[in-house]
Amino acid sequence: MLFNNVNSIHYESTLLKVRDDAFSIREIGTFHFENAAVQIKAQGKNDCLLLYLRSGHAIVKHSKSEKVILSNEVVLIPLENGVHFLYAQGSGDFLVGTNCPQTELMRNHLRVPSQVDPRHFDEFLLSCQDPMVTESLAKLLKALPVNTNRDAKQRDFIRNALLFMDKNISKRIVLDDITDTIDYSKFHFIRVFDEYIGQTPHQYICDRRLFLARELLAETDLPISEVALRSGIRFTSNFYSHFKRKFKKTPKDFRDQSE
Predict the structure, then answer these.
(1) Which of 24, 73, 129, 259 could be a cystine partner for 112, CB 3.0 to 4.6 Å?
(2) Fold match between 9-143 and 150-258?
(3) Could you please report the per-residue DSSP string of 126-148?
(4) How many helices (H) and strands (E) in the chain?
(5) According to the CATH classification, is domain 150-258 in 1.10.10.60?
(6) Segment 143-201, tens digit of pLDDT
(7) Structural domain 9-143, CATH architecture
(8) What tens digit of pLDDT does each residue of 23-79 get?
(9) Domain locations in the chain?
């Protein structure tokens, strides 16, 4: 199973019988990411992951590309080299295909429906040999909301903002760094960000840093003061109080219980 032995994710899935000579679905299910990094190991050469994020968002790294998936978006990801969710939270549906055809959609993956020619989705669906799976996928894609030009522009802006925050999470981040490059006021940026992410930029950055710190505490032997710095929290005293408020444990207690 795709998410077997992967921490910080809850999932339910069903394994299906596959054909050796044609594109078919070998696993289909639902997932819930819990504010964490998720590394999926390399799969078969022509395996692919179709992921629908019903709520939340995820930052995905595949090969040399990084992509933000927002709620009500679908992406197709080849699994030959594995995939790394740098940060993910939210719920949705997924399926794993095998013997995936080298269609235009597979060659130009990590795109959301608004960026894809509908004919490329049709080409992908027609290559599936299981009519029940094809029908369910077609219903899912047709049910996705059609993004207006305004919505598509805002989504692209939120993607860029999240990528900027992620790359600079250990540094000092101010709104001017983000809003100076676009025609959005600070007030408008905060409103749009909250609309799509469910938090203000400040709340998101604070949570992102605390979850990064939790990951470092569990997976490294770095001193707690260094964990705080690498997470973008400059004062250790603030780190202790914020961490305990968020996770109901001190950083030291959390690390001790993770060992």
Answers:
(1) 73
(2) no
(3) HT-S-HHHHHHHHHHHHHSPPPP
(4) 10, 6
(5) yes
(6) 666 566 667 788 888 998 999 999 999 999 988 888 876 677 889 999 999 999 999 99
(7) Sandwich (2.60)
(8) 788 888 899 998 878 888 888 878 888 888 889 999 998 877 888 999 888 888 888
(9) 9-143, 150-258
